[in-house]
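Posting this for the archive.
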Amino acid sequence: MKSSSRVLSIVMALTMISATFAGCGKSTAGSGPAATATATATAETKKEIVNLTVCLPDQQWGTSRDSDLQSEVVKTIEEKTNTKINAIIPPQGSYKEKVAILVSSGDIPDVFRVMQAMSLLPGYAVRGQILPLDEYIKKSPVLSKIDKSAFDYINVDGKKYYLPKLIPLTKNLWLRKDVADKNGVNLSVNPTTDQFYTEMKKIAGSGVIPFSFPKFIDNFRFFYNAFGVYDGIYQKDGKFVDGFQVPETKDALEYITKLYKDGIIDKEFITTENAVMREKLSNGKAALDIDYANRYIYYIGESNKFKVPTEFLPINTLVGPKGKLGNLNEAIQDAYVVGAKCKNPQRAVDFIEFLGYSEEGIKLDNLGIQGKHYVVENGVGKASEKASNAGYIWNSGFTILLPIKLNNLGFKWDEATEKGMPQQVKLYEASTKFNGPSYANPAGISDAFDKVSPSIKSTREEIATKVVLGTLSADGGIAEYAKFWKSIGGDDILKELNSKMTTK
């Protein structure tokens, strides 16, 4: 299990990075010095404008889905980075699929964000679809200061193929206090699996969904951790093993199935997007959901917006029958990469450095442009009317997860947000003390493993879904997985992985 101290060390190390550095190019733009350039950068040779195809979801680019507002952000970033951007902006909900289509078709963007990076990024690397960034990181005064442990989560033959968008992410459960009180629910931050079931069952049939859950099956890992199950290939006692093939897998699957069959997990979870899940919790139609540990203030604000205000209580982990525990440690969930066909990888890295590792770029990305996306009145910032009508996300939670510290936003948050900030930080730090395991995918070691790795993940998730929905028993699911494992030569793959690791 990765300790909370390790995660927090990453935060501390990264927040020490200076925020006053150049963005893309670290040089003067064609019409004058870039606003974020340092004295060293302005002394460098001017760089020509370069074309970059950049694919990021619609919840970036100033977090507004309005095309005009997105274009304003693109234009501003072009000016700051001395680039001409061909922006590809898929919806957040279908972004992962859009990237997969682009990459597999050969239309690889110069810069793109990989979601579920620990699972998907190694595949892009071993297929030669993204570039190693070691040399660019090494010569950047900013990127070279990133704590080395931030790269331990995704290891492809010892090379760095990504730049983390955020610090390692943690998910816990968020419970509405008003619904809990009304139904006599009493849960600690780390209840046992039995206690969780018994208490949440009190809400079933009340007209409120006890547990709104998203369609993304990797969230089952929150429950697996309580049973000592890891649904992936990882090293145990110095050897690679398949963590899903342990006796406790049956217990874990049967527990989740029980939550579903007895009306605790939302019957419609298999089609529920994250945005829908969050709305159900915010408007009081659900009592509980699973979400990132930095969402406290978000839910406070959203419940006020829906005129059903309440306090939100974290459940950081469940404790299983044998004392196993751990929340959902997604580690490097989102990462920036450079496409293998990029004609100017240095400028692509410079673009990422500006967008993700400078105060100016981060504010453009997460807040947008003052006067367009948001306005400041009496020193307090708020979303503009146009941005609000276009689904703009005005949320302070991102500030906790950034790879650098923002020294000055240029405004204060509203009174409720400012008041809730200390509690948000406290709850977030407490959640990291329960971090569950998260292991690097052993990519780049065995060609046989690299070829079947995506199907191993998809098969696990497909079987788990069938079991929970009741189309397979737990025993049947385990038998189906064993059959699949044999069909891909799983035992031989593990032998090869262990053999090659031993000889390195």
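Residues 1-45 have pLDDT under 50 and may be disordered. The domain at 177-331+415-504 is CATH 3.40.190.10 (D-Maltodextrin-Binding Protein; domain 2).
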